[in-house]
Amino acid sequence: GQNTETRGFQAEVKQLLQLMIHSMYSNKEVFARELISNASDALDTLRFEGVKNDALFEGDPELSIWIDFDTDARTVTIGDNGIGMTREQVIDRIGTIAKSGTRTFLDSLSGDEKKDAHLIGQFGVGFYSAFIVADKVTVDTRRGGESTGTRWISDGGGEYTLEDIDKPGHGTTVTLHLREDEDEFLDGYRLRHLVRTYSDHIAFPIKMREELSEEDEKEGKEAAWAQVNRGAPLWTQAKAEISDDDYAEFYKHSCHDYEDPLTWTHNKVEGSQEYTSLLYIPKRAPFDLFDPNGKQHGVKLYVQRVFIMDDADKLMPRYLRFVKGVIDSNDLPLNVSREILQSNRVLDKIRAGSVKKVLGLIESMARDDDEPEKFKTFWKEFGQVFKEGVVEDAENKDKIAKLLRFKTTTDESADPGVGLDDYIARMQPGQEKIYYITADTLAEAKHSPHLEIFKKKDIEVLLLTDRVDEWVMAHLTEYEGKELSSVAKGALDLGEAETEEEKKEQEKLAEESKGLVERIKTALGERVNEVRVTHRLTDSPACLVADEHGMSAHLERILKEAGQ
Ligand code: ADP
Ligand code: MG
């Protein structure tokens, strides 16, 4: 062929391919979903770029995907007339993994097939799943508007070859040369079934050749192409017509997860704003949830069913960055640019409305006594991130606070723990504040001398040990009219005498200790603001207390560590 070259795969790709081939076998059908999903993405891209540059369509505006097989050659082919790729793009996109976090991904592999399969899904390396069933893959592609096409061939070993080709139609055709035992896929019924199961809601027609009767076959008739999938995007359909399986399948396909979602909310909003949202909460946190450079698929924005962008930041606040799904607006212009989206009132309203829906969804999980496991899972996987909302989302702070769950001195279970409403319901008579303690570890929190008086008085204390807790609590000073108070701060009123006798006792003690207090003050000098006699300790002789309005010792330590 013309302009032929052989190149080696990036080391990471080689590793990935080995993994794919050896550990994904029980999920081998996913190749169909992944390749159809790539074709659909390519059609989306063409439709989007085509709004500004009509030439990309090359006079062929009917966008579709087709699937065919050849029993003699033992191949299955998946084609699209989408945007296609240039030679450089092929090298960049299917010879290398340019995405950040590749290393993290490979490092997080456990060797446990199930877990690793899950990671592959999250990582979005779907193309390579072709090698689960194929021992050779050919990709023919030409970018719309370009004259030369490119052929990529690989056997999934260490190398691939490239050559120039003539390709009349723009777009991409992926041909799978099936492995020895994979003849089951050379079957129209089997393939149609795969399409209906995994890709029914792809927004473009997926076509296959109709089955010929034996007679027609004898006469050498050409089979006609017919659409196999339902075709309309799921979110545009009436809720009553969508089954839970449909929702789950759509989620797995469009949000790149191999597991069913935890829960979802589907809403058509009408009135001054018209949009549809279909938002999911996954069952498991992605491995890069806390990685600031992590690849987050997030929420996709569509305008009148045309894909616009995949940018979670604009549609969901950071503390809901685990939410996935689709928002489809009828109000934004089709040729909307990223710049316009930076500050757009329509989008702001959509975002605010969607946040409400997600909070409502989480609330309903928290209330659901039939399936308490759901909220437990949610809190375990995403609680740490969700907490950030107290700081980030002032408008919904109370709603978020209601959903927070804590370990406490009376309930250390983490799943999901104690809510502030539970806490208030069992406050001691006369107790006015919600008390908490922050520490690096649970053990440290539990054994703090600050807790002694609370134990004595049977007052529950929230035990906070997450890194973000200190920061979150600095913003959560009140809940339902009750002040939240750190046990390590200020002149706790708890030590107050309850009877006249006790009061006298305390006064006497203070009088007697004056000399001692003076001596300690002198010894500690500038290192402390004040030395006081306290009645809040029962076992420990002394403890450090932060100023009411100052930083707590814990926060001070965190800032010091951070070099502040
Ligand atoms: P992802 O789809 O998550 O990006 P994949 O491994 O499935 O990961 O695909 C890698 C990349 O290869 C895609 O992002 C896309 O740029 C390119 N690609 C794959 N299939 C096609 C196709 N049919 N048409 C155009 N580009 C494609
Ligand atoms: Mg893909």
From TrEMBL:
Keywords: ATP-binding, Chaperone, Cytoplasm, Nucleotide-binding, Stress response
Keyword ATP-binding: yes
The Histidine kinase/HSP90-like ATPase domain, residue ranges: 27-182
Transmembrane intervals: none
Chain spans, region A: 1-338
Lineage: superkingdom: Bacteria
Family stated for the protein in its record: Belongs to the heat shock protein 90 family.
Subunit field text: Homodimer.
Protein name in UniProt: Chaperone protein HtpG
Gene of this entry: htpG
